[in-house]
Amino acid sequence: MNDTQMNSTDTPLLSVRDLKVHFPFRRGSLFNSQKGVIRAVDGISFDIARGETLGLVGESGCGKSTTARAIINLVSPTSGDVRVDGVSIAGMSDAAMLPYRRRVQMVFQDPFASLNPRMTVGGIIGEPLVVHSLARGRDRKLEVLRLMELVGLNPRFLNRYPHEFSGGQRQRIGIARALAVQPDLILCDEPVSALDVSIQAQIINLLMDLQQKLGLSYLFIAHDLAIVRHIATRVGVMYLGRIVELAKSEDLYAGPKHPYTEALLSAVPVPDPEIASKRQRIVLSGEVPSPDVYYPGCAFADRCPVKIDRCITDRPELPPKNHAAACWVREEALTAKSAQTN
Amino acid sequence: MTQTDPQNTTTATESSQTKSSDEPILRVNDLHVSFKTDEGMVRAVRGVSFDVRAGETVAIVGESGSGKSVTNLAMMGLVPKPPGNIDSGQAFFGGRDLLSMSDRGLQSVRGRHIAMIFQDPMTALNPLMTVEQQLTEMTRLHLSLTRHDARKRAIEMLGLVGITAPEKRLRDYPHQFSGGMRQRVMIAMALSCEPELLIADEPTTALDVTIQAQIMELLADLQARKGTAIVLITHDLGVVAGVADRVLVMYAGRIVEKADVRSLFAAPQHPYTIGLLGSLPNVESNRDEPLAAIPGQPPDLSQPIVGCSFRDRCEHRFERCQTDDPILTPRESLGSEPHLAACHADVNTGETRQ
After folding, report:
1. Domain assignment present for A330
2. Where do the segments described as Disordered lie (chain B) (predicted)?
3. What is the pLDDT of residues B314-330, one digit of tens each?
4. Which of residues 208-267 of B touch A (CB under 8 A)?
5. pLDDT tens across A227-254, in order?
6. Pairwise CA distance, residues B210 & A283, whole Å
7. Does residue A2 fall inside a structural domain?
8. Where are the domains of chain B?
């Protein structure tokens, strides 16, 4: 796929360990100010294998986008490690990062804001080829045309500007730009949430088709659980800067363990009136708390229907399991059960 | 009302099958709305007719630009003129045509009898006024309540929509509320005069799923208690399946399918509705199979549309679809309400209908 040397296949393509992104803030008046810290991402760990799609779901403000941005250093991680093929890139200088940026690309949510309105489609898709000195002159143009075809854009549109395209087509331009440098991993940050339903399916199909053709890996960030279920092989559920459950997609949707995942899944509207009328919804009280408050225990405890005393004081961690939940109540039951089967 | 237009005929069929006690409280008749833009005249709504009965929830589903919001803005006299213009049509509410009413007349209806909640509560609430000022403004104006009574009513309404310590929160400004709480304030405001009809335009789109569930539950609960009719405008078929009684599917400024919620989801009759439902990943969808995406894009409404507006994206199209725009005709309904679709094809057989 790529001319950078491959390490042994045992090493995950991307490995994130105890990643934290904290934003210090100051509020109040000049003389009476309080200092605090927003814990946007607060110690998360996961791997992404070659050819795999890891879905990251959660509500607004849970830190899923910040996680993606921290992986490619668009925001600096406060602590923790990010490895691409075993090489640590967290906190690297921009110059040293360049070869890794080629391997890890990003597709953004808003196809209106993420494309330069003064550049033509050809210029936008060709720019990474210039930055990484991959092709010039006629070769570059041919490569751009090949990419346009690959993502289903008519090559006749080479010299058009972004405003002449619809949302779905713009997202195709963003995908072509990401593919230009032949990356191994694409971080997709809500790539379809700004699109209409009938267009969403087109883009999801395109992403899955490209994955098959090119052997890509994706980190797929979304708040739409039905779409993540369709595209992701494994899914991580985030709440207030932490991953509370991580499992294979089928397992997570069939039997969620964390009470938050349960509530989240039960709140997803089902497009079927028969099922919708019979379904038991877990309607959570309250809202996601502010990430500027430090919780010594489980951050979900305030809203949790099954909490015990320990949840207020001790912070649950994700156990090293295939289907892991960071929950004192549910994980105990799990340990007992899996101890029998093993 | 004379029934000359083909779309009116369908409305007549519909109401003739309903009991006389179910007289519609709102009847929209052949509404046409256009906007003058740099690209030409955009025909945003091209002949829309529907009824809403007391206490029921009618969902209007469609994608951006399908005309679902403009239809409702037009009824409320909220289409900016220019560039907008209501070319023709009527919207009868309580025996009066909203579209030919004076601004003054409309003001006595808006907020009092028909209330509206919007997608983005931050742009609908006044950031410079406290919640108390905004909540009491309407009741003092429409119900002529005294300051004291209006305040009591505001506290009662905030409590009703599930805001804790309402007396304290009355003094707060909109920015001091979270997204879900602001949407609750809007609902409290909209319902404070006990309107007969509530138009909810994407009320939960900006909210997270767990908060969305809370808000939809709240609306259903208030509807059950007060008997308010709701017109729910949304693109989310999941929300529709959960709360609607009847559904109107809009495409390119027209209603292409109209049905009982169960009948629509169990046996959709228009290729666009079928496509929309197919685009959604569901429990049975297989990762190895691509989603049934609808190819292409909606038509450019600044260009005149001859024939069916969906034909370029349709797998059932015939020659006839190029020239004749199909009207809504009755199909077999699996629910208690009639099921109508505007399509020349019989989607069950793929054959053309006579």
Report:
1. yes
2. 1-25
3. 988 888 899 999 999 99
4. 208-214, 216-217, 235-242, 261-262, 265-266
5. 999 999 999 999 999 999 999 999 999 9
6. 7
7. no
8. 1-99+233-354
- Are the Cβ atoms of B64 and A283 closer than 8 angstroms? no
How many structural domains are present in chain A? 1
Contact A281 B217 (CB under 8 A): yes
Q: What are the DSSP calls for B291-354, one per residue? A: P-PPPS----TTS---S-TTGGG-TT--THHHHPPPPPEEE--SSSS-EEE--SEETTTTEEP-
How many residues are given for chain B? 354
What is residue A295's three-state secondary structure?
coil
A295 in a domain, yes or no?
A: yes
Nearest CB partner across the interface for B241, out of A198, A199, A270: A270
Taking CA B20 as the corner, what is the angle to CA B18 and CA B21, rounded to the nearest 5 degrees? 105
Q: Do A283 and B210 touch (CB under 8 A)?
A: yes
State how far Cα A239 lies from the chain centre.
13
Written as one string, the DSSP assignment of B95-125 is TEEGGG--HHHHHHHBTTTEEEE-S-HHHHS
Question: How many angstroms separate the CA atoms of B31 and B69, rounded?
Answer: 13
Q: Which domain holds residue A68?
A: 14-341
A68-123, pLDDT tens digit by residue?
999 988 888 999 999 998 899 877 788 888 888 889 999 988 877 889 999 999 99
SS3 for B275? helix
Q: Which of A107, A114, A120 lies closest to A156, judged by CA?
A: A120
CA torsion B335-B336-B337-B338 (nearest 10°) is 70
Task: Inform me whether the pLDDT recorded for B129 exceeds 60.
Answer: yes
Work out the minimum CA distance from A269 to partner chain B, whole angstroms.
4
CATH of the domain at A318: 3.40.50.300
- What ipTM was assigned to the predicted interfaces of this complex? 0.77
CA of A55, closest CA in chain B: separation in Å? 14
Homologous superfamily, domain B1-99+233-354: P-loop containing nucleotide triphosphate hydrolases (3.40.50.300)
* DSSP secondary structure letters along A157-173: GGG--GGGS-HHHHHHH
Substitution target from B184, B291, B301 for chain A, most A beta carbons within 10 A: B291
Chain A with chain B: Cβ pairs closer than 8 A: 117
Which residues from B are below 8 Å from A197, CB to CB?
Answer: 63, 235, 237, 276, 279-280
Of residues A229, A271, A277, nearest to B237 (C-beta): A271
Residue A7, in any domain of the structure: no
Q: What is the pLDDT of residues B218-237, one digit of tens each?
A: 888 889 888 899 999 998 88
Nearest beta carbon to residue A229 from set B209, B242, B281: B281
Position A280 pLDDT exceeds 90:
no
